[in-house]
Amino acid sequence: MTVINAEHIGGILATLGLVSAVGIYAGRKVKTAADFSTGGRNISSSIVAGTIMGTLVGGASTIGTAQLSFQYGFAAWWFTLGAGIACALLGIGMVRPMWESKVETLPQYLVKTYGTAMGPISSIFTSVGIFFSMIAQVLSFCALITSIYPMNPTIAATLGIFLVLAYVLFGGVWGTGLTGVVKLILLYISMLACGVIAFSWIGGFAGLAGSFPSYPWFSLFGRGFSKDFAAGFSLVVGVLSTQIYFQALLSAKSSHEARKSAFISALLIPPIGVGGILVGLFMRANFPETSSSEVLPLFVLKFMPPVLAGVVLATLLISVVGTWAGITLGISTMMTKDIYQRFIRPSADSNEVLLLQRAIIVLLCLISLAFVSGNAGSLILSWSFMAMGLRGCTVLFPLLGAMFFPRMVTPVGGIASALLGPLANVLWKVAYPSGLDPLYAGLTVGLAVLVGVSAVTRKRLKV
């Protein structure tokens, strides 16, 4: 095991100090619940893009990508590639109607078309899906910390919880956005450096070709077309159906700024995955006995100059914590706005909502501890793909119907789709754990139910 020295620690502390200073500055801007959840709708495109990327580009897209590349090669690119495609689609057609609606959450937007019952249904199902993404970040954090200093995964996760609370509790969208911009700059430098070093040490294109056969290692469908297409597609439908990404877009000062931030994210996210892929391939070729979840942090410790390694490790730490924090912010916003304030205490004032939102964040972090011990060695990206697919099966088609075909969908059709789509996803996974990806079943049922039930109930309404 590589032992960290004073130079490593110096690089880590300098990087953490920079980002902490930005977070403290961001926290000073939070005065109300609106500031916390949407930044008062006065945020520029760069900060909005920072929020999106600060949540999407975390442990899954760095540590998880290197892990999957170590096992299967370029199929690991689907996380960042799918995320980039989804952001482009957000900018092309979905930002303007959502921003102009002046809502704060996706369920609030759906309620306008499908009625009040749609709010808690979509909030609960999508929150469960988002929570699985949170588990991916917990596992990434544990892999990172335990590769630096051996410790029990539960202790590592507990340390992560304290960092998440410090990161988001006082900053909200301002905190995730401003630190997201700083993190993105550091992350690009870090992953570029990792990729260049790995590419050089393996011997360039000739070294890669000599170390691996073209299939499956250099194919986007190295695990099979059905499985890998579902992985990429799950990212697309998941991003298009997730609260935190829309929450970031809704914080923009105008729909134009929101669209620009979506396109910035679409352009910048996919290249980040390439660095992780190159590291995974290098480590597979030279250190095949390495624990797959620790491939990226161990590469940083072994093959990078100590100070730069410290910067990279701190950047990975911030990336994981930032995504973890952004996920909890999205769930807490839906729980407070769409359930508590709408059904439990409609009279709750801004301070009460803000306090509850922060309490939910604490609770979510504590629940995540229960998932660590039994899943410490699992594939990080499998949790992310599953999470994206589950919330896509719940929200995607009802959302598209409400945005583009509001006269053709009905409340009964939308609610039935939001219930039966994710249910089909889960049941298929249980019944056929090694069969066709459950995303296909969930989306097929969701679309069929939305179209079919809406057609029948629309005719009855006309009668």
Brief descriptors of the model:
single chain; 463 residues; mainly alpha; Sodium/glucose cotransporter; 20 helices
Structural notes for this entry:
The longest helix has 39 residues. Helix content is 79%, strand content 0%. The chain folds into two domains: 387 residues, Sodium/glucose cotransporter, CATH 1.20.1730.10; 57 residues, no CATH class. The protein starts with 5 loop residues before the first helix and ends with a helix.
Short description:
By secondary structure, this protein is mainly α.
Write the layout of secondary structure elements.
Blueprint: H1 6-27, H2 33-38, H3 45-56, H4 60-72, H5 78-100, H6 106-114, H7 118-148, H8 153-168, H9 172-202, H10 204-211, H11 214-217, H12 225-239, H13 243-250, H14 255-286, H15 295-303, H16 306-344, H17 350-368, H18 380-404, H19 411-431, H20 438-462
Helix pairs in contact: 1-9, 1-16, 3-9, 3-13, 3-14, 3-16, 4-14, 5-12, 5-14, 5-18, 6-7, 7-8, 7-15, 7-16, 7-18, 7-19, 8-16, 8-17, 9-10, 9-14, 9-16, 12-18, 13-16, 15-16, 16-17, 18-19, 18-20, 19-20
Number of domains: 2
**Terminal residue distance:** 74 Å
**Main structural class:** mainly alpha
Q: What is the CATH third-level topology name of the largest domain?
A: Sodium/glucose cotransporter
Q: Sketch the topology as an H/E string, one letter per element.
A: HHHHHHHHHHHHHHHHHHHH
Number of helices: 20
- Average per-residue pLDDT, rounded, comes to 85
The top-level CATH class of the largest domain is Mainly Alpha
Helix content: over 70%
CATH architecture of the largest domain: Up-down Bundle
**CATH evolutionary superfamily of the largest domain:** Sodium/glucose cotransporter
Beta-strand proportion: under 5%
Main beta-sheet annotation: none
